Amino acid sequence: MATEFTGTGDPARSMALLWRTPSSDGSRPGPRSALDVDRIVAAAVRMADAEGLAAVSMRRVAGDLGVGAMTLYSHVPGKGELVDLMLDSVLGELYPDEDVLASGGWRTRLKTVAQANWDFYLAHPWAAHLATGRPPLGPSLMRKYELELRAVDGFGLSEVQMDLLVTLVTGFVRGTVSGVQEKADAERVTGISEDQWWAATEPYVAQVFDPERFPTAARVGPVAGEELGAGDPHRSFEFGLERLLDGIGVLILDASR
């Protein structure tokens, strides 16, 4: 069964591998192997990006690297630990310019956080689900947390409020970006595109939007549908983010008084 959460492996082994403590890569005395943890993780990430996390297995990753599965196990004990390493590895792609989160007003900073997370989850759709589980406390996750906390530092908020705001914004992004992945999953599973599905339901629109039974839906639905089509996750992201920031503004205003 595919590992769909972080933290399902041996925590001690995962932590040792995440922080690359001595001998955590399974190395032994003698000639240095061309295979290492970084190569294994990179191969697994490529596979997950192309086919989803369920496609990743120790045997498949070993085959991709041209080694036996037992060779892989000598570096990474199992898929649970591998998933922890994969998530922390890709999190390192966030915020190549660290200074961007420590300049400008709080609204600009939080927009930067939200957009960076949105782009990240589009690049690695499998990571959005993993980020809701037990976090792999590796260096990239801690760097992400540190930088995002800096985005809300210095505005009069308490430490707890700072943590909650970071969780609120990043959680909002994960929830919204899931709509993109759900559409892609539906097309892949059904073999029918979003446009094809809606075209097939077109003859029933008048019945569905019956103004006598559903007067409000009949008024709003066609107008929204004409502008938004079958649903625009990015439009929802932008609209929701602005409303979220409006609310955060009230909190920050109160904290400054």
From TrEMBL:
Record's keyword terms, sorted: DNA-binding, Transcription, Transcription regulation
GO MF annotation list: DNA-binding transcription factor activity; transcription cis-regulatory region binding
Membrane-spanning segments: none
Organism domain of life: Bacteria
Key word DNA-binding present: yes
Pfam assignment, any one: TetR_N
GO annotation, biological process: negative regulation of DNA-templated transcription
PROSITE patterns linked: HTH_TETR_2
DNA-binding region ranges: 57-76
HTH tetR-type domain: residues covered: 34-94
Record protein name field: Transcriptional regulator, TetR family
Organism of this sequence: Blastococcus haudaquaticus
